[in-house]
Amino acid sequence: MDIALNLLKAPHVGVREFKEKVSSFLNKRKTLVVTDHGDPASVLVPYKDMMEILDILENTPKSVTGSSHLEALLTSESSLKKDWDSPKEDKAWQSL
User: Fold this and answer.
1) CB-side exposure of 80: number of CA atoms within 13 Å?
2) How far apart are alpha carbons 80 and 84 in whole angstroms?
3) Percentage of the chain with pLDDT > 90?
4) Cross-strand bridge partners of residue 43
5) 34 with 22: CB under 8 angstroms?
6) Which residues lie closer than 8 Å to 95 by C-beta, 6 or more apart?
């Protein structure tokens, strides 16, 4: 599976650098691991790869994944934008 291999080989970038260059990272459409003090905190996965992951999960028996497993993987774009754009969130980023 190419997705798993891409994740293992994915470059790591700190949270501060990610915030400063988010547009550049999004335009590259590559898998990226975002770290917080060197520890993986989040993964940026290209849309095409995410759709492939979802397809695999949807075709996996619930006894293997659990019913809430798929729900935990999904965060809507509007939710991310809302959190990202809040003054409270921006202040938290500045204190890093």
Assistant:
1) 6
2) 6
3) 21
4) 33
5) no
6) none
